[in-house]
Amino acid sequence: MIDPQTTILFRVRGLSLAIDKYAKHSSPLFQKQPMSKLQGIAAGFLFQHRDQEVYQRDLEAALGVSKSTVSGLVKRMEKNGVIVTAPGADVRYKRLLLTKESIRQMTVVDAAAQKMEADLKVGISDADLATFFNVLEQIKKNTE
């Protein structure tokens, strides 16, 4: 019989649920989700790279999802007023840009996320954190 305490699948799922619960209780920003988690992650990526030209293919690579998933995501985000598209340096592709309101909101969200990240790292050494990330990466590779 599988022991949930020593099984990666159960422990990672439990950690994910605990972090979701923590996020919702630590900041009112994360209690109501005006957009899906994937949209939030995409908006975060665009916010972090707002001084660069970002295209749909960049989101595909960053999020690790298919072209069709990102295509639908971009359409929903445009429809919801989160992003706009504009011609890029390569006119064959559209640049993805956060709206001014989205940039304002993401500035607040980013500050809250940075605080939560710092809180989650309390008591964890840099060496332990590096090991943790290495282990997570190996688990991810093992799924491929």
Automatic annotation (TrEMBL):
Pfam families, per the entry: MarR_2 (PF12802)
Domain HTH marR-type: from-to ranges: 28-129
Entries under SUPFAM superfamilies matching the protein: Winged helix' DNA-binding domain (SSF46785)
Keywords, sorted A to Z: DNA-binding, Transcription, Transcription regulation
GO MF terms, alphabetically ordered: DNA binding; DNA-binding transcription factor activity
Superkingdom of source: Bacteria
SMART domains the record matches: HTH_MARR
Family matches, as InterPro entries: HTH_MarR-typ (IPR000835), WH-like_DNA-bd_sf (IPR036388), WH_DNA-bd_sf (IPR036390)
Listed PANTHER family: TRANSCRIPTIONAL REGULATOR, MARR, TRANSCRIPTIONAL REPRESSOR OF EMRAB OPERON
The protein's name: HTH marR-type domain-containing protein
